Amino acid sequence: MIRIEQLHKKFGKNKVLKGVDLTISKKGVFAILGPNGSGKTTLIKALLGMVIPDSGSLSVGDISIKKDWKYRDQIDYLPQIANFPANLTVKELISMIKDLRNRPGEDKKLITVFKLEPFLTKKLSNLSGGTKQKVNLVLTLMFDSPIIILDEPTTGLDPIALIHLKKIIKEEKSKGKIILITSHIMSFVEEMADEIVFLLEGKVYFKGTIEALKTETKESNFEHAIANLLTHEDA
Ligand SMILES: Nc1ncnc2c1ncn2[C@@H]1O[C@H](COP(=O)(O)OP(=O)(O)OP(=O)(O)O)[C@@H](O)[C@H]1O
């Protein structure tokens, strides 16, 4: 259960979140969408305690974020840009993250799925972008937490890795988890998301299923339905 009420956040004069209300009470995949700079990452970071809101309340699993930081242990988070320590090997990084989280972590299956064995002893600075993203995914998905937050998970992935990622997301969903995803790849969103949360002008402009969005915008095509929301902004 995630509950966000009247969340406000500005950076200097830039008011990014202007009263976001969002409740997610059931399992499923929720796509946080919105144009560049609409505050998707800021919202996610607020949920993780990495951005301190100016006002509003956030709770995860009935625990208010302000009162107790232990809630973070329930969340597995994939950052949009992973800044890995350049001189560590993949193996060293995986073991460091396990130590930091003080949890065992099921990395072996993920390493096999993403074919990372040949890279385990390689330094992170020597990996390609897509391989780094696969490592990023292993670090996130190895801990079986009830909430998963993936910020642009498809970045740099080849088609085979993408198929595996989609399979993993579906498996995690079937375990009853809440999965939040941001992505600009509409085909990925359409295939994966149970609900869309569309941020615009600092608020949740639309929340509902893809079918509901299509009905509301009178568009049978998902990409056009999203574009329709944006056209309304310009109007
Ligand atoms: N630490 C920060 N300091 C100053 N401004 C920031 C900071 N973080 C984000 N912003 C600004 O807040 C706004 C929202 O950024 P955010 O990264 O949340 O958007 P986004 O919806 O995730 O965008 P994108 O789709 O491009 O990833 C942008 O104008 C950004 O420049």
UniProtKB/TrEMBL annotation:
<protein>
    <submittedName>
        <fullName>ABC transporter</fullName>
    </submittedName>
</protein>
<dbReference type="InterPro" id="IPR027417">
    <property type="entry name" value="P-loop_NTPase"/>
</dbReference>
<keyword id="KW-0547">Nucleotide-binding</keyword>
<dbReference type="GO" id="GO:0005524">
    <property type="term" value="F:ATP binding"/>
</dbReference>
<keyword id="KW-0067">ATP-binding</keyword>
<dbReference type="GO" id="GO:0016887">
    <property type="term" value="F:ATP hydrolysis activity"/>
</dbReference>
<feature type="domain" description="ABC transporter">
    <location>
        <begin position="2"/>
        <end position="226"/>
    </location>
</feature>
<dbReference type="InterPro" id="IPR051782">
    <property type="entry name" value="ABC_Transporter_VariousFunc"/>
</dbReference>
<dbReference type="Pfam" id="PF00005">
    <property type="entry name" value="ABC_tran"/>
</dbReference>
<dbReference type="InterPro" id="IPR003439">
    <property type="entry name" value="ABC_transporter-like_ATP-bd"/>
</dbReference>
<keyword id="KW-0813">Transport</keyword>
<dbReference type="InterPro" id="IPR003593">
    <property type="entry name" value="AAA+_ATPase"/>
</dbReference>
